[in-house]
């Protein structure tokens, strides 16, 4: 028999995820008025645990506030944990999403029904050393003074365009730069570089304030500053980081090929131990399921 569809939390109840439907006037479907998170749980020696859940839900709250979407982090925490328990997931990717639903075709969110869901899918292997090839995007990142760098659904149209363009040119992922040639981020990950043994986190006002980036900054005390594309191309190592990507070495940016990534591999291993609860000093970043 086929495995049962995972359960999803929807407006307060756990239901089979594949039975959920959205109405045709769903505001978020027309205009992108939703906010989401990408969170991960890991199998640890003390059971499944979610990595930096409060920080993810706090970022989601900031996004929900932009639209006036009701959002209760305590309820969202319960929803995430209930979904993981119901599905028996240990290594899992978790997708909370809040959005404006049914209510007609007008742009005003007032009168549209707010909804929230949490879905989880089992993750079997993580990227584990997969080396990414980046194309420099022809599209600019949404500028922060037009669209704040939060996980607002509509903002990801920009990432979709960039990713499609990069893939059409044979790359795995796109790297955004601004008009002055400064590095912004990738479509779903932040960027770091290693030069002469020094670790630098790319800082840019249009980039998402990544939780993985923050994790690595706290672990390493790396400097965060603006970085030009020119500087990135001259670096010894470059890597992308994010909840889904974890720490992903970059093999190539356009026709610049990078060699071995020893510092990146070390950080990748450290990050892997921390998310699995094997570094007691950082256990407070894990919420037991
Ligand atoms: N930038 C963008 C645009 C993203 O979507 C993500 C993924 N959330 C990241 C960076 C990395 O953020 P985090 O480490 O919080 O997952």
Automatic annotation (TrEMBL):
<keyword id="KW-0032">Aminotransferase</keyword>
<comment type="pathway">
    <text>Amino-acid biosynthesis; L-isoleucine biosynthesis; L-isoleucine from 2-oxobutanoate: step 4/4.</text>
</comment>
<dbReference type="InterPro" id="IPR043131">
    <property type="entry name" value="BCAT-like_N"/>
</dbReference>
<dbReference type="Pfam" id="PF01063">
    <property type="entry name" value="Aminotran_4"/>
</dbReference>
<dbReference type="InterPro" id="IPR036038">
    <property type="entry name" value="Aminotransferase-like"/>
</dbReference>
<dbReference type="InterPro" id="IPR001544">
    <property type="entry name" value="Aminotrans_IV"/>
</dbReference>
<keyword id="KW-0808">Transferase</keyword>
<dbReference type="InterPro" id="IPR050571">
    <property type="entry name" value="Class-IV_PLP-Dep_Aminotrnsfr"/>
</dbReference>
<comment type="function">
    <text>Acts on leucine, isoleucine and valine.</text>
</comment>
<protein>
    <recommendedName>
        <fullName>branched-chain-amino-acid transaminase</fullName>
        <ecNumber>2.6.1.42</ecNumber>
    </recommendedName>
</protein>
<dbReference type="InterPro" id="IPR043132">
    <property type="entry name" value="BCAT-like_C"/>
</dbReference>
<comment type="pathway">
    <text>Amino-acid biosynthesis; L-valine biosynthesis; L-valine from pyruvate: step 4/4.</text>
</comment>
<dbReference type="GO" id="GO:0008483">
    <property type="term" value="F:transaminase activity"/>
</dbReference>
<comment type="similarity">
    <text>Belongs to the class-IV pyridoxal-phosphate-dependent aminotransferase family.</text>
</comment>
